[in-house]
DNA sequence: TCTTAGCACTCTCGGCGTGAGAGTGCTAAC
DNA sequence: GTTAGCACTCTCACGCCGAGAGTGCTAAGA
């Protein structure tokens, strides 16, 4: 473990470097942070810290900068997070509070706010819809050749999609098909309803129907495809890409290019944002993706009905204002969770009333 | 009008500059393009062209580069577009042909391909849904307190959305409401159905219903909101942002920053992509947006059922491979138009998917 | 034994001058 | 009207130099 004084020095180096982006020397440390000892002593401590791997020297006779390990120690042991400034709190709160019900718009605003306030890149992973357990699949005829497929879960979530019917499909067929899928799939978590399972079902179904009406197969196929896609793909919102160009560590265009390329690779981003609930911080080399090995990714999950469904993230240089970013993400995640719960609560209220009313039909 | 020789010189300068990105001098022109005259003559012609505004000199004793006007003349009069190389054709065709029915995925692939093949930034404006004439609005009861609003146009296009019903709403109410909206709106182009018109309708409706059932107003309000949003907002897909970093004219980080900032401003992008049908080219200062005053934007529209509904665009430096980009966009637009027509013609495909998550308590 | 002052040493960075290279404009001859 | 020749200009890469910042080491002090 580090001696108290070493910790103080390390913290001072990290703080100084985060705010100035310049390698920090013993003299400046001596002047600006009153550590109670001379620059020479600080110098010795810094030499020790370097040997222990917490600091690095870009070149001899330059100051030191924190290593990934140094940042890690700082984040885990030294950093103290203050609550977000009131001004920023209000800025953030305004969005979820403004009653925007379109998730799409809401999340892109959130992304924009995050990048504005943090001055780094923001990433927002939309709420995944595949939680919950399938309750019913319905096929509702709408017009002559049009039906709508609707999917209910135990949480009342609904995905739906319009289907154009092949000729000669009759209402009974639709009903049969829906009953069949419901019977076979009800009670299963949505995430279990994968292509594999559906393949089996589809084969079975064809078996049944081949004799009767071949055209129905086409419809079933469309349904299977839809189900297999797990509802709507989860979108990722990015914002503030231009911010990294302001960071001195990204004057190297090649680095910027790699990062921009990453931001267009949805698959990689999904991987990057696959995080456990709460706040996580991965620093530099701790990241798996090569493109962000010189960056830090801070994430925070937000919830719907108490269950984590999406991720907010900030991507910036390892020289990042950790304390601020973490408070920011925590706060925003709370706002979002609350916003989603509000929506959900309002509906709940409405439905609650409906139920009582329904008991004694008017 | 320019003499034939001047035109040849101008063309040679543009071609040379496009491929090398270096100011071109009379001597290199003399060596690489055989214009049949000496470098001295070329020099004189270039001096003339500069005076006429077609060429510019970064500084005395450097070669010349084309001005915006020079590029304009080149595009309008000198450039000859070859058909797209077979290899690229195949690459582009594979996507719309691969039977992807999700517009979302299709268009993001298109965007990716465009930027890959062109090496510039690609922009894709999704198909606007507000063409066509409203035919019917239906409210289909689905479960006890859930209904689905479905909107049909003369082209068979459909938007739909799940609505959670207030209590005490009965099937007749739904029918009545739908009939009312249909009666008042049928035959109108979707783009005319704006908030203003709907406000009138809503007021009228409240008048009618107040006496009977206040709660119905809430439902009507939801409907009006939905209609006023003109269906789903049209998304813009971007790709290849990292490509501009490869362009020598974008070594200046400030320029890059402005461009990246622009790409996150959806409103501005809508404006940028508001184009007339067919191929358009705006060069440098011809652009209204300051952020792209040093860029060229080439656009091409794609169609559904013969009517332009969306835009493909390439954004790059004014020193752009115009001929290639134009062929590329034309070809891709054709592919897309065809893909969309196929979908609509076969009528076997899913047209639209609803994005909704209505909720209920467990 | 720990801390501190002093000092020589190292390394980067910006400014400056220089020369090569590329290109021009002008003039005079064809 | 075209071309060769030539003097001139401007940029850019290179190398040099000195200032500045910071280090490591040593020796003296607490």
Structural features, described:
The structure is a homodimer of 362-residue chains. Chain A is built from twelve helices and ten strands. With 362 residues, the first copy, chain A, is α+β, with helices and mostly antiparallel strands. Chain A folds into three domains: 4-78, Arc Repressor Mutant, subunit A (Orthogonal Bundle); 86-128 and 234-347, Beta-Lactamase (2-Layer Sandwich); 134-228, Heat-inducible transcription repressor hrca homolog, domain 3 (Enolase-like, domain 1, 2-Layer Sandwich). In chain A, the strands form three sheets. Chain A has a five-stranded antiparallel β-sheet with strand order 7-3-10-9-8, sandwiched between helices. A three-stranded antiparallel β-sheet of chain A has the order 4-5-6. A two-stranded antiparallel sheet of chain A has the order 1-2. The radius of gyration of chain A is 27 Å and the shape is elongated. The N and C termini of chain A lie far apart (74 Å). Strand 6 (158-164) of chain A pairs antiparallel with strand 11 of chain B. The first copy, chain A, binds a DNA duplex (30 and 30 nucleotides) through helix 2 and helix 3.
């Amino acid at each position: 473990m580090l001696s108290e004084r070493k910790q103080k020095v390390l913290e001072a180096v990290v703080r100084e470097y985060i705010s100035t982006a310049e390698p920090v020397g013993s003299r400046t440390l001596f002047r600006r942070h009153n550590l109670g000892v001379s620059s020479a002593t600080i110098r010795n401590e810094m030499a020790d810290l370097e040997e222990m791997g917490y600091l690095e020297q870009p070149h001899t006779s330059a100051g030191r900068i924190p290593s990934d390990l140094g940042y890690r120690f700082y984040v885990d042991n030294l950093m103290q997070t203050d609550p977000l400034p009131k001004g920023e709190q209000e800025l953030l709160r305004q969005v979820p509070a403004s009653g925007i019900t379109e998730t799409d718009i809401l999340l892109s605003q959130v992304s924009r706010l995050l990048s504005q306030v943090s001055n780094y890149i923001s990433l927002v992973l939309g709420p995944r819809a595949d939680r919950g357990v399938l309750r019913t699949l319905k096929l509702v005829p709408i017009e002559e050749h049009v039906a709508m497929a609707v999917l209910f879960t135990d949480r009342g979530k609904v995905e739906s999609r319009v289907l154009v019917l092949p000729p000669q499909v009759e209402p009974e067929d639709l009903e049969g098909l829906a009953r069949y899928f419901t019977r076979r799939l009800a009670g299963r978590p949505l995430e279990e309803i994968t292509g594999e399972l559906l393949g089996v079902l589809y084969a079975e179904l064809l078996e049944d129907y081949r004799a009767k009406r071949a055209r129905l197969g086409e419809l079933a196929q469309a349904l299977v495809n839809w189900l297999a896609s797990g509802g709507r793909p989860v979108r990722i919102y990015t914002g503030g890409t231009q911010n990294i160009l302001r960071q001195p560590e990204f004057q190297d265009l090649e680095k910027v290019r790699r990062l921009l390329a990453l931001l267009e690779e949805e698959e990689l981003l999904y991987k990057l944002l696959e995080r456990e609930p709460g706040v996580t911080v991965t620093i530099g080399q701790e990241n798996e993706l090569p493109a962000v090995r010189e960056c830090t990714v801070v994430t925070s999950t937000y919830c719907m009905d108490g269950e984590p469904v999406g991720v907010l993230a900030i991507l910036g240089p390892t020289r990042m204002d950790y304390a601020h970013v973490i408070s920011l993400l925590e706060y925003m995640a709370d706002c979002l969770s609350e916003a989603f719960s509000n929506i959900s609560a309002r509906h709940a209220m409405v439905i609650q009333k409906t139920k009582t009313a329904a008991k004694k039909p008017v």
